[in-house]
């Protein structure tokens, strides 16, 4: 994989959806808990799959999971699970669908305990500040970090599923708690 394609991080290649996601979302700090829940659902669904597969199903996930309204997702039932097992717009994996519902309940618990999921996430970062890395090539970007290790470990202890350290790191990158745009990427230069 090339480090750069058209002035941006090469991992997104030329796929229009991937490029739009790279340019408009990836690495930009998210403070809104609804969007953080969306990324948590999508990253958890991605486990074992490519991110582009999930991005292509994003609208399906919006429809399936009440536009990522965590309160509504937390009240979904076994009947909803059966319905979603037949829904074409998402990855039809019973464990992932079930975990989305149970993770929603745990997400709400964290909001109550910390005031927001955003505050909870910041609690794993030195000085409660996001990390901006200055990598020059894609090969330098890690798949996990001490922050993702600690956050994933705590989330597992709370009962979250499909959120190991690698998935957690991807979540932190997606939501801008870790900015891994390469130094020569035009997105890094705009910040």
Plain-language structure description:
- The chain has 191 residues and is mostly helical.
- It is built from eleven helices and four strands; from the N terminus they run ββααααααααβααβα.
- It has helices at 16-24, 33-46, 51-56, 58-64, 70-74, 78-84, 94-114, 117-122, 146-158, 165-174, 186-190; strands at residues 4-5, 8-9, 131-132, 178-179.
- A hairpin with a 2-residue loop joins strand 1 and strand 2.
- Helix 2 (33-46) packs antiparallel against helix 7 (94-114).
- 32% of the residues are buried.
- The mean pLDDT is 97.
Helix proportion range: 40-55%
Number of helices: 11
Q: What proportion of the residues form beta strands (DSSP E)?
A: under 5%
Helix and strand composition category: mainly alpha
Neighbour order of strands in the largest sheet: 1-2
Mean pLDDT equals: 97
Shape: globular
What is the element string, with H for helices and E for strands?
Answer: EEHHHHHHHHEHHEH
Question: Sheet bearing the most strands, described?
Answer: 2 strands, antiparallel
Number of separate strands: 4
Unreliable stretches = none
CA-atom Rg in angstroms: 16 Å
Distance between the termini: 25 Å
Salient structural properties:
globular; 191 residues; 54% helix; mainly alpha; 4% strand; two-stranded parallel sheet; two-stranded antiparallel sheet
Protein topology:
Layout: E1 4-5, E2 8-9, H1 16-24, H2 33-46, H3 51-56, H4 58-64, H5 70-74, H6 78-84, H7 94-114, H8 117-122, E3 131-132, H9 146-158, H10 165-174, E4 178-179, H11 186-190
Parallel strand pairs: 3-4
Antiparallel strand pairs: 1-2
């Amino acid at each position: 994989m090339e480090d750069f394609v058209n002035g941006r991080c090469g991992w997104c290649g030329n796929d229009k959806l991937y490029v739009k996601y790279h340019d408009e979302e990836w690495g930009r700090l998210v403070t809104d808990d609804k969007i953080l829940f969306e990324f948590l659902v999508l990253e958890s669904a991605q486990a074992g799959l490519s991110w582009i597969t999930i991005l292509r199903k994003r609208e399906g996930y919006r429809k399936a999971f009440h536009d990522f309204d965590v309160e509504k997702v937390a009240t979904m039932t076994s009947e909803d699970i059966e319905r979603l097992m037949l829904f074409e717009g998402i990855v039809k994996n019973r464990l992932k669908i079930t975990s989305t519902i149970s993770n929603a309940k745990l997400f709400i618990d964290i909001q109550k305990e910390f005031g927001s999921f955003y505050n909870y996430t910041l609690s794993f970062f030195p000085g409660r500040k996001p990390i901006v890395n200055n990598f020059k090539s894609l090969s330098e970007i890690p798949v996990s970090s001490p922050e993702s290790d600690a956050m994933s470990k705590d989330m597992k202890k709370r009962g979250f599923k499909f959120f190991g350290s690698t998935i957690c790191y991807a979540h932190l990158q997606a939501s801008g708690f870790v900015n891994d745009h390469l130094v020569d990427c035009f997105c890094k230069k705009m910040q």
